[in-house]
Design a protein that fits this description.
Elements lengths: L4 E3 L7 E5 L9 H11 L4 E5 L2 H9 L8 H15 L5 E6 L1 H13 L3 E5 L24 E6 L7 H4 L8 E6 L16 H18 L4
Parallel strand pairs: 2-3, 2-4, 4-5, 5-6, 6-7
Antiparallel strand pairs: 1-3
């Protein structure tokens, strides 16, 4: 694959196709930390970028994310390049995880990992992004900070979600799992907890 970043052993039994969120690229500090941490568990982690982020990198200019049809097709293409199959778990940060969950069933992958799912835009609780989650068949884990403005525990608890979805709450974390100082936790604590949960989920996913 070209235009990607790969961490972990080439001969790994499981691979994780890891997409970025709406605002930061595949080599952001968050993406780098999680990718390296999951790779250390023996998983081959493949990071890629959606077309709009590639354009930002090439031109040095901003630009809104691509339309959903472009994002989903880009993820399908990345799955094909990564080899697909049950040995591949797909997911991403925020928007990347959402798009992964939209193509997972048709792709026949082993699982989905969402790190900070954007259940709704901050402050716009009525604009939910959950319709497809009601019937999702692919085993999915959503890691969500308990202070995430894109979906708080009391809000998420009221959504109708598929039984294939498991939610793990990151204590006092925001959308990137960063806690408040007074919580007694550190950002590193929460990132380590998230990495451990992702690694455990991938290890338990059904392979080929």
């Amino acid at each position: 694959m070209t235009g990607v970043i790969i961490d972990g052993p080439k001969t790994a039994a499981k691979s994780f196709l890891f997409a970025h969120g709406a605002g930061a690229p595949m080599d952001s500090a968050f993406m780098q930390r999680v990718a390296e941490g999951v790779a250390a568990s023996g998983v081959r982690v493949i990071r890629f970028e959606f077309p709009y982020m590639q354009r930002r990198r090439q031109t040095g200019k901003g630009g809104a994310p691509d339309p959903p049809r472009v994002l989903t097709q880009s993820f399908r293409d990345a799955i094909k390049e990564a080899g697909g199959g049950r040995g591949l778990v797909i997911g991403g940060k925020s928007m990347g995880g959402r798009i992964a969950s939209m193509v997972a069933d048709e792709a026949g992958v082993g699982g989905v990992v969402c790190l900070g799912y954007p259940f709704h835009p901050p402050g716009k609780l009525e604009k939910t992004r959950t319709d497809h989650l009601e019937n999702l068949r692919t085993p999915t884990v959503i890691l969500q900070g308990t202070r995430d403005s894109f979906g708080l525990p009391e809000e998420v608890g009221g959504y109708k979600l598929s039984s294939a979805i498991r939610i793990e709450w990151i204590e006092d974390g925001d959308h990137s799992f960063k806690p408040r100082a007074r919580s007694g936790r550190t950002e590193e604590d929460n990132i380590r907890a998230a990495i451990a949960l992702v690694a455990e989920f991938i290890a338990s996913s059904k392979g080929v």
